[in-house]
Write a structure and sequence with these properties.
The structure holds 2 protein chains of 2 kinds. In chain A, strands 1, 2, 3, 4, 5, 6, 7, 8, 9, 10, 11 and 12 form a 12-stranded mixed sheet that branches. Chain A has one domain. By secondary structure, chain A is mainly beta. Chain A is globular, with a radius of gyration of 14 Å. Chain A contains 2 helices and 12 strands. Chain B is α+β, with helices and mostly antiparallel strands. Chain B has 4 helices and 9 strands. In chain B, the strands form 3 sheets. Chain B has a 4-stranded mixed sheet. Chain B starts with a helix and ends with a strand. Classes of the chains: A mainly beta, B alpha+beta. The interface between A and B is large, with 47 and 50 residues. Strand 11 of chain A pairs antiparallel with strand 2 of chain B.
Chain lengths: 152, 191
């Protein structure tokens, strides 16, 4: 079991090699928690509390009857409903120029999005992705549902 | 024979379905979502337009507000409060708020109190009277005044980002050395 986690970690590191430089940088903050929500960071599972920072490479996981709301630094609003897994794959933001990039993954469950200042300035630097599909946005609000998603 | 299809779904996970729904814009114009499943891009640009993926195919469909609420109510309810921006104005050449702005400042404090984990960005600006370095310093001083007032009102200073942009971003464009009250301001955004 431990070995398979290791493998997943190695695969992930190569998948998101580009984001590696941003890993651990602050991306946003937990603004709302209902039920049981955890943040998975560098192999650790932390309980998500209101006011907790969200960092690049964090995974947010919700249980049955649980939900979490996160505001990113560029004012992007995210929420994940019950039994969801959302990953903050990339995030950088210059609050003076509003340049930056956002990449958020929905592995399973439902995630709602209201895009922020980066999407307004350079929509092409914002993406959301599911296990099969990449979504681009043109300054907007939407919901993504992944019915039978991935567990990690 | 009917049970064969659902059984196939379970065995092959072939029914792994995904769905994306565009919502009406709460503020600003309705945008669009571009969906790229690897072959053929789809575009959602009407409220409640949806793309549903089933058996490896993405199809466009139309949902209703009621369906979206029923399916995604708990998710949407968890969305954080939208950010809110305020502008307070200053007396010429000073870091003293105008009397009207004191009232705005009370609204800012009330908004912050309503939020569970507020974060605040405070950005100072000046008009074009004076040199660039002097205005950079003044804009920072104005932002610092606002930050100090927020801290005095009980806010954790670590949750407040402060910046000064001098005369670079006037709200009302003017020639150099023109006094313009609307440019002597601090923008406070609460998220």
């Amino acid at each position: 079991m431990i070995r398979s986690y290791w493998m997943a970690g190695v695969l992930c590191a190569s998948c998101y090699g580009l984001a590696w430089a941003q890993v651990g940088e602050p991306a946003g903050m937990v603004k709302h928690v209902r039920g049981t929500v955890s943040i998975e960071r560098a192999g650790q599972k932390l309980p998500a509390a209101v006011g907790a920072p969200v960092l690049v490479a964090d995974k947010l996981r919700t249980s049955d009857d649980s939900a979490v709301g996160v505001t990113l630094k560029d004012h992007t609003l995210l929420s994940a409903g019950p039994n969801s897994l959302m990953t903050i794959d990339k995030f950088s933001f210059d609050s003076t120029t509003h340049d930056g990039n956002v990449s958020v993954g929905v592995r399973k469950g439902t995630v709602s999005v209201a895009t922020g200042k980066i999407a307004k300035k350079t929509p092409e630097s914002v993406d959301f992705h599911t296990p099969t599909t990449i979504l681009g946005t043109r300054g907007t609000e939407f919901v993504i549902e992944v019915a039978d998603g991935k567990e990690d | 024979m009917r049970w064969l299809v659902p059984l196939g779904c379970v065995l092959l996970a072939a029914c792994a379905s995904e769905r994306v729904v565009l919502l009406p814009a709460t503020d600003g114009p309705l945008g669009a979502v571009l969906i790229n499943p690897g072959k053929g891009e789809q575009r959602l640009d009407q409220p409640y337009a949806a793309s549903v993926r089933r058996l490896g195919d993405n199809r466009l469909t139309q949902m209703s507000a009621a369906e979206v609420q029923e399916r995604y109510g708990p998710t949407l309810k968890a969305q954080p409060k939208r950010s809110q921006s305020y502008i307070v104005y200053f007396r010429e050449g000073s870091d003293e708020l105008t009397p009207e702005s004191l009232a705005t400042f009370d609204r800012v404090k009330a908004e912050i109190k309503q939020r569970e984990a507020p974060e605040i960005a405070v950005i100072g600006h000046t008009d074009r009277v004076g040199s660039d370095p002097a205005n950079d310093a003044l804009s920072k001083q104005r932002a610092a005044t606002v930050r100090d007032a927020l801290v005095a009102a009980g806010l954790d200073s670590r949750l407040i980002e402060v910046a000064g942009r001098g005369e670079r971003e006037p709200l009302v464009p003017t020639a150099d050395e023109v006094a313009e009250p609307k440019n002597r301001r601090v923008e406070i955004s609460v998220r």
